[in-house]
Amino acid sequence: MAAQMDPGKSFEDQFSKLHPGFPVNMRIAIVGGGPSGLSAAYALCKLDYSNVTVLEKHHTDKAKKQGRIGVHAISDFALDSTPAFLEDHGFKSVPKSVAYGYTASGYGFVQDMPYAYIHEFTRTSMAGKIRRFKGGYMSMWQKISESLPIEVLCNTEVVAIRRNSSGVNIKIKQNGGNSTSLEFDKVIISGSFPFKNGRTYRSPS
């Protein structure tokens, strides 16, 4: 029977008790190392999943090179307070120009708000009016990817995904070499669709 939500209790508290919904050692693959892929990895780690692998086609995870991202890319961070997010990922503080602008606009103090709200504010209300983080958003995503207890396989092209009775088989090519296969229990496809020649990911009939 599906769990019933109590409208009189905090949604966050009730939701957190539903997870992890699978064994924490489940083998989970994430196809794509962009901001959304790393966001998924971050969320899984927050839920104590310990066997997460990111498969990235290029020589570095794409999130390290993104010059422009939207708040949707960090939606999984919405519950992290700004001080906690900064501390967890090696940042000292939000730039004063952002903090002052946020408070002056009537949104409150940055230390009291989820980091996702601050990010969205800088992306929209203050676009073109402030400087980026030192090193740009590249540094933010690089710190995130380095801080997570996950395996990141770069130069790894996913050429096929097939479900079977035991899980998911992912065929890959590393550094343009011969194809090999990896076995996982679950897969998350992040970013652009990685397949060619009309191949699709289907459940077995």
From TrEMBL:
The leader peptide range reads: none
This protein is called what? Amine oxidase domain-containing protein
Q: Which residues form the Amine oxidase domain?
A: 115-192
Could you tell me which Pfam families the record lists for this protein?
Amino_oxidase (PF01593), NAD_binding_8 (PF13450)
